[in-house]
User: Fold DUF1963 domain-containing protein from Clostridium thailandense.
Amino acid sequence: MKNSIVELPESLEKYRDSIEKTIKPYIKIKFQKQKNMLWESKLGGDPYLEIGMEYPKASNGEYLRLLAQINFEEIPPIEAFPQKGILQFFILPDDMYGLDFDNPCVQDTFRVIYIPHVVKSEENLIKDFSFLGDLEEDWYMPFANEGKMNFSLEYMPIPWDDYRFNDVYKDMWLTDEEDDDYMEKLNADGSRIGGYPFFTQADPRDSEDLNNHDTLLLQLDCEKECDLMFGDGGVANFFISEEDLKKLDFTKVLYNWDCC
Assistant:
């Protein structure tokens, strides 16, 4: 087998050149259940919030809750993404995890916030978040435990459920067996930054008004370590256009999650 950064099943070796043209780098995320410092990358926990900063709320006055926080100084460099600063993802902890399916780009019941300069000193940070209160009985987050994020640089080809798959491979005809091998061996499950997304249903970007969100900002898939799960075996994705990412403009992020 030809040496490559991506391992292919034998049935797909003859398509290697075409498949390798689609390869993208990404940052694989693995979780470790533990408490973290306020400025560290993490799932859940207390956010990085400097004294004087406003805590994010939905338009109905409800406090949003920290879903995830990424400190870019902790991840391997990846093209188009920042090399410093903190990116935070907040959601409303309701039965839809803050997603409005009719308006998935309107940041009301979810929020994506970028903080370019990070101060690693608790003296300058809010440490008491008791004002948030306990969640009501019917309100909950998609994880049970706060988790540390561990990162590694990996590579992947386009998965079959990406809305661009058929256009990319318009001249490649797979047999039923090859199609099954591609779906099974080259899927995009797992939590990551960058690369390609995974869906249990369908790619929401397969529409003219959303297909400019070409870059996967963050994907959170089921993880046993922190009991992370969206719905019934679901996965969440946040998308952005590469142009907006390079400008550090996170105001038009697309949020999506689906489940079995």
Q: What stands out?
A: The chain has four helices and ten strands. The chain has one domain: 10-258. The first strand starts at residue 24 and ends at 33. The CA atoms of residues 21 and 88 lie 32 Å apart.
